[in-house]
């Protein structure tokens, strides 16, 4: 094909799926990440390094036809580390790409920039209303991307909902572990809020569409999410049903649970952060009309498909240990002790 694509964060859950798909499509692919890939992929070169290293990126971006910027801090990171990766790192990626005359940059952001949106379905015109360090860093990174778009660079901004699939861990490992061990699983309130997710395969296919789209369509901002989704209770229950122990989603009263979770978070005893806790109480879904109409996006997987594919992968791997990326299980802290009550 002749096109050379550089993927930042190429060893992460999204990056790994993306570089494999790009290689299958015949692209020349170069991945850069602080971590080496879990497994090498034929046709993919990898450099272990920091996106804050301008000299390194200058070398990698030379001759690239596009950069897909997947590298990002996570909600579990400190405020300083979030800024270092998501804000300072993003500015370095865009500045170096412009200096290297890279014609197209795809910036993977997050629907978290909407904070706790005032309307659903949430469209791309909804203002950014960050409510925590993670969503603020994501919003600032988008502002940087827009600055470079305004100078004439072709810049795509993608706002996916929480994406799932083989390789996904993070907080979902807690659900998977409790389900496999024959535990009920708690949800704040009744769990009847509508909660949209996204299969990582659908996110990857949308990025493929952006890479081949004309500039006028690619240089825009797009929401992404599953077309078929239901309640949070239904999503969690599908995993408990798949585990086969006859366990159920159990409602927790909201009023005492929120202050307790906030206290545990501040004490570093729980990975459940403020925005996530509040997001479990309101409908959360975005409009994908623009992606459908302008680029022909058609998600193949529903919420249930995505979460069950993640669970199937987890059961096959039963990963050991904990970590700090979406490919690792996060420490459950005091919540691990609560299992005895479920």
Notes on the protein architecture:
With 342 residues, this protein is α/β, with parallel strands linked by helices. The chain has two domains: 4-164 and 197-224, Rossmann fold, CATH 3.40.50; 172-195 and 228-284 and 301-341, UDP-galactose 4-epimerase, domain 1, CATH 3.90.25. Helices cover 40% and strands 14% of the residues. It has helices at 13-24, 54-61, 79-99, 133-150, 172-180, 200-212, 215-218, 232-243, 254-266, 274-279, 289-295, 303-317; strands at 4-8, 28-33, 44-48, 66-69, 104-108, 154-160, 163-164, 185-188, 198-199, 221-224, 249-252. The strands form three sheets. A seven-stranded parallel beta sheet has the order 3-2-1-4-5-6-10, with helices on both faces. Strands 7-9 form a two-stranded parallel sheet. The chain has a two-stranded parallel sheet with strand order 8-11. It is globular and about 55 Å long. Residues 268-273 and 321-335 have low confidence and may be disordered.
């Amino acid at each position: 094909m002749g096109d050379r694509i550089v993927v930042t964060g190429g060893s992460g859950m999204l990056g790994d799926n993306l570089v494999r798909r790009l290689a299958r499509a015949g692209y020349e692919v170069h991945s850069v990440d602080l971590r080496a890939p879990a497994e090498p992929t034929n046709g993919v070169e990898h450099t272990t390094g920091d996106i804050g290293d301008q000299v390194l990126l200058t070398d990698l971006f030379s001759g690239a036809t596009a950069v897909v910027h997947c590298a990002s801090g996570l909600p579990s990171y400190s405020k300083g580390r979030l800024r270092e990766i998501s804000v300072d790192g993003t500015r370095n990626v865009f500045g170096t790409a412009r200096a290297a005359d890279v014609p197209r940059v795809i910036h993977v952001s997050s629907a978290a920039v909407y904070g706790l949106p005032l309307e659903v379905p949430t469209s791309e015109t909804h203002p950014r209303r960050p409510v925590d360090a993670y969503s603020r860093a994501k919003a600032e990174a988008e502002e940087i991307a827009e600055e470079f778009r305004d100078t004439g660079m072709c810049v795509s901004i993608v706002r996916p909902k929480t994406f799932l699939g083989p390789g996904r861990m993070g907080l979902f490992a807690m659900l998977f572990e409790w389900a496999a061990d024959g535990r009920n699983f708690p949800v704040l309130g009744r769990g009847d809020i509508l909660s949209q997710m996204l299969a990582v395969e659908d996110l990857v296919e949308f990025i493929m569409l952006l890479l081949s789209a004309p500039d006028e369509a690619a240089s825009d901002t797009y929401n992404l999410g599953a077309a078929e989704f239901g309640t949070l209770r239904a999503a969690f229950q599908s995993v408990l049903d798949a585990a086969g122990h006859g366990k159920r989603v159990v409602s927790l009263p909201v009023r005492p649970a929120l202050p307790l979770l906030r206290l545990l978070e501040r004490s570093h005893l729980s990975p459940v952060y403020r925005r996530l806790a509040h997001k479990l109480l309101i409908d959360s879904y975005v409009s994908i009309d623009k992606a459908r109409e302008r680029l022909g996006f058609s998600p193949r997987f529903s919420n249930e498909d995505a979460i069950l594919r993640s669970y199937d992968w987890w059961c096959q791997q039963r990963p050991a240990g904990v970590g700090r990326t979406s490919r690792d299980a996060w420490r459950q802290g005091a919540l691990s002790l609560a299992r005895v009550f479920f």
